[in-house]
């Protein structure tokens, strides 16, 4: 089955197509959804910072309007990206996740990071170009690891002060320059809970557009150490039996997939599929 959403660099000089609008408040939507006729949307009193052609949805071209301010047309409202992730059409969320990353990049690269000159979109390429010093900037992707540490029928879960109350999740962190994903995993687990791991197994990856991460998912077995939560980063961390788990992350997240996959394998249940 062909995918409903595919990315592409589209010429903004072409007429027609669909458009999504994004501001600091999320994405514009109404009773019909988040896709608007592009020509209609561009006629609204919106303060457009940048426009990018981002791909095709159900075969139709889609453009992003990145806005300076959350001006709201009649009968419309704003909805955050996380809410789209938690409910509704996952293909729509994938499209909006990509749009969010392009919008963040467009907003943060209006001016050259080398000489301060104005940046211009490169025709036919997802890049911004500085004519003054010839610097080209491309959308940023930040690799990070996320790992479920296991010990037989127990899993090590932790909660950050930023989590919804009661929710525990896997450990995660961004890769440093010069690190492999495995080096990053070992370092982050040690930093966050003072535990050593072994038998690292790669599971899968997921784009995490909050704002521009690529999450590399792993399982790893406990090797040694007692849990000591990292100050200011980890509010609590515990071993949980797979039959007595706490509140867990959203079902469409790779964090939840790592947990559900391990529980399925230990329990002899069908293995879940990572949304993607």
TrEMBL record:
Binding residue positions for a divalent metal cation 1: 172, 192, 233
Catalytic activity: NADH + H2O = reduced beta-nicotinamide D-ribonucleotide + AMP + 2 H(+); NAD(+) + H2O = beta-nicotinamide D-ribonucleotide + AMP + 2 H(+); a 5'-end NAD(+)-phospho-ribonucleoside in mRNA + H2O = a 5'-end phospho-adenosine-phospho-ribonucleoside in mRNA + beta-nicotinamide D-ribonucleotide + 2 H(+)
UniProt-annotated binding residues for Zn(2+): 112, 115, 130, 133
Manganese in keyword set: yes
Entry binding sites for a divalent metal cation 2: 188
Keyword annotations from UniProtKB, A to Z: Hydrolase, Magnesium, Manganese, Metal-binding, NAD, Zinc
Highest taxon of source: Bacteria
Any Gene Ontology biological process: NADP+ catabolic process
Residues binding a divalent metal cation 3: 188, 192, 233
Motif (Nudix box): 173-194
Chain sites annotated for binding substrate: 82, 125, 138, 206-213, 255
EC nos: 3.6.1.-, 3.6.1.22
Domain Nudix hydrolase, first and last residues per copy: 139-262
Cofactor annotation remark: Divalent metal cations. Mg(2+) or Mn(2+). Binds 1 zinc ion per subunit.
Signal peptide: none
Subunit structure and binding partners: Homodimer.
Family the entry assigns: Belongs to the Nudix hydrolase family. NudC subfamily.
Annotated NCBIfam families: PRK00241.1 (NF001299)
Functional description taken from the UniProt entry: mRNA decapping enzyme that specifically removes the nicotinamide adenine dinucleotide (NAD) cap from a subset of mRNAs by hydrolyzing the diphosphate linkage to produce nicotinamide mononucleotide (NMN) and 5' monophosphate mRNA. The NAD-cap is present at the 5'-end of some mRNAs and stabilizes RNA against 5'-processing. Has preference for mRNAs with a 5'-end purine. Catalyzes the hydrolysis of a broad range of dinucleotide pyrophosphates.
Protein name, UniProt field: NAD-capped RNA hydrolase NudC
Annotated organism of origin: Pseudomonas rhizosphaerae
Gene transcribed to yield this protein: nudC
